[in-house]
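Deviations from the work plan: none for this task. Representative record:
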Amino acid sequence: MTERELFKEAVMQYMVDDTRVMRVSKRRKNRHVARRILFAAACLLAVVCITVVAVPSARAAVEEWINDWFSARDYFGQEKSERTDEPTIEAITSSANNKNVNVSSVGTGYEAYATAFDMTLDEIAYDGTSIFLSGTMSGATARPFVQAYTGGDTFRAAPFDGSLGGDGSWEYYYFSCDNRVTFETPNGKEFSGELVPTFTPEMDEICAALSSEEMQDVFENGELVTSNPKADRLWDAYLANHDVRFSMQLDCYEPEAKPLSGQVTGELSIHMRYDNVDSKDPVQVLSASFGDIVFDADAYQAQTQTTQAKSETRVDFGGTHPVTILEWQPEEERTGDTAEVYYYTHELDFTGASYSLKEISFTPTDTKITLHIVLPESWTAAERCYCDLSFRFLLDGEAPESWSGCPFNAYGPMGTADKTGKKLEYDFELFSSSLSPSQWANIKTLTILPMTTYWWDMKVAVDDGPQQDISLRDGAVYTEIVYDSSKPNGHSTAFQTDPQYDVMSQYALTINLDDYR
Amino acid sequence: MESRDAYFDEVYHEHAAKLKRFLVVRIRSVSDMEDIFQEVWKRFYERMAVLRPQEPFCYLVKIAKGELSKRYRNQSRRNEREEPLLETIPDEQSPFEPALLDRMDAAQIWSIVKEEPLLSYQAFALYYGFDQSVRQIAKALGISEDAVKARLYRTRERIRAEWKGADEQ
């Protein structure tokens, strides 16, 4: 090997550990690191997941909107006597016959925990996509699950070695106990997810009492005894006298997976472990099985109503409306790895554009709306591809209370996504509603308001340089160089915009939802 | 649609080297290289759950820029000052002795390079790893061509000295 070849090998093989990068990238999020930061910072409103409940100041702020953010898993997490009945969910729910869990293997040092391990299933349901389960676990069993949100003596620590990222000033990585639940049929179809404890108001008070305090680690002989002694005392008192409810949502991650059908039997199991630094194996806690569980995978069909739009619901657009386009440079024009994005705002003539309702689907746990959009031939391919046409909604004539003004958590695409310009039309889907099925059942009319997003001015800073005022008026185009292989410096761009919204109420479409139930 | 993992692997194999080249000129310390590279791929994998970008590499660069911005947002840029050339860099550098070359190990060479100052690390990676010319490296790093040569020379001589030293022990 020549010197040059050897040095090249040194760079390409060892600059980063590709195998490790690929493996770590595909791993589930290291919540132990995120939680450490969360507790130290005391508030991360952007984290829209259950870790928010551990921080009461954040919880108060988000409670208003998180309370109207319906999720089927959270529904199952509530005690039956305390939840607002959702008839479509109850219709697909059956008893899991109080199936108890049996431990099948135990990690070294977890024998006492395994001996006391006690979980009982309560309900099971299948909505055509996900399997939902609920149950109860003893206080002792719940300890590592609830302490994941507060710290405590169920945490583990490993000396910081950089293998999991993070700040070089850290001394340790902290790990809460992870769990993975799987449901596997005899023919190998697998659903997986996580067991999540339900926090009662009393448990929330424990989190509130801990949130304003820094966690105080206790180490003995180099081993972590607890990451939060106060949490241990509070959980000791609560868990000695309380069981804890839990819920799970299990999903199948096979692409193009078809819904289950008929009476479905499969084994439900849970595996608990602690993650670890790269050079060491995860620490196994235990594996346990509920044995075979059975449910009716057809029940959801009676609670699912998908209705194509019966009558002509097409709305023809008109007039001109401002739209800011972010157009990617055509591939054939690029040199090497260089790519440009062109920002421009056009007053687009919407003559020839239209949208219509294609179908509405009410499932036991969700509501999904599909619209069909046609864009004018007069637009360029880029304008059709990147137009970012979106929608707002009125429910019985009123704007929804949810914070985003749109009662769906998932929607798109934002244009034809076709750079060739051949496509003039596409389906726009909205699903994963933040409203519950019973809330939808009480809504009589849905008004759809198309909307464009645009801005005429923006501030741009390149390579941390001074901000420049950029105008997109009078046909101006701002070119961002996303990557330029010949000029690697000078192409880091930060934007500050003040987007405006053209809500086209004159092209509203009001649907009578009873026609689709 | 292919599985998320298969798609991720495909994109990684096709674009990892280019992303390394993109990042190496933008990092502000050697230790940031692996961290930022890892974070970019983690975020890319997370987003694969809901989309397959039409331009995977451009998407990776967007993520990388975000990560770089996040990391360095609160730091003022501190450029290493160009060290003055205190010695004459020979135009023709003597090759490594064949016997020494035979015993050299790529992993240990890299461990030496990682300890070098940032600009030397960057110059070495771009020159030997990504086959960039001295002129390209000079432009990328904002230093003179002579400074690039000096840094390459010094790193190379340090590798030689460390291997020779180990050999003599």
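Confidence is low (pLDDT under 50) at residues 28-68 of chain A.
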